[in-house]
Amino acid sequence: MGEEGGREEGGEVLLYNALLFKWDRLEKGYVYIAEGRIQETGEGEPPEDLRHAPLVYNLPGKLVLPGFTSPLTHLTLYPLRDRIGVTMEFSWAWHLASRISPEDAKSLALLALKHLVEHGFTAIAYMDPHPEAIAEAVEEVGLRATALVPLDAPEGVDPEALDRLRERGFPAQPASLYGDEPRGSSVYLRRLPGDRDMTLGGQLGPRSIACHPEYQGFGDPAAFCVGHNLQYSTRWLNGELGFRSNISYWSAHKLTLEGLGMILGEDVRWLEKGSPADLVVVDLGSVPFAGMEEKGLSSILFSTEYHVPRVETLVSRGQVLVDGGEELVFSRAALSRGASVALGLRRAPV
Known about the structure:
By secondary structure, the chain is α/β, with parallel strands linked by helices. 25% of the residues lie in helices and 27% in strands. Helix 2 (102-118) crosses helix 3 and helix 2 (102-118) packs across helix 9.
């Protein structure tokens, strides 16, 4: 979706003695990160010179794979995720989020981003009111992101926000909130609305993105997203959309690199030298692990909203955002403010 801007890429990190989830196999080996990219990776023990990296992680019993991605997300609607499509129309939720200040929108975004980071997400594309305030939140956290600026939004989006975001170097693309091409404009992504205008997914050229059970009528998706309900995690999508018997590499691709490719606007390789340093480390713990074709492994590996297995470490743009299962980037004051704004939004009339 465009060139990257925002937070400076991270320093040197070495992950070793872990199971690496490669495109065609699992291998025990190492990954060395510098300047926001995978610089070296291989089987077995890392070369001695790489062991002097400032951050070294010995990961026995852990699985390393590309970070989860969501190429369509509504961060400011996070407090209303359990109501949209049930007791509340999406359009009303958008109206409520449009009425808050940019500062409050940023606070809500930080609250939602904490949830995403703790559950293994490293890259998103968001479609929200106040897109410039959301960009500030994303940059502070350190995720890769693209702003999807809806040209047909009835409120909450300045028509010039798209140009201003691009001028400051933040990736941004024109989008459609209601699924149509706005008159006189072409859009990069169209939101697919369903009953009560809930977000079913998105359409990006010939490729589609799924985030809700009712999406199934649109056919096989190219990638998965969380839409406005962050509880629809990769575990739920993996089960509902047919990947019940095993974790195929192709289904894993839809959960990780396919979405990242959409967000970055480029093809991304699978844990290879030169790939973006966006990785999630999950702790398999006591879960039986018999290989990639083990029945039911998909529901075990991708049950991220329940932390089974838990996200042990998260690296985004070369920066460690989660260490030992604990996020490192969100201040208590910012989260408290976000919680207060969320409570006010939930108290608004339906």
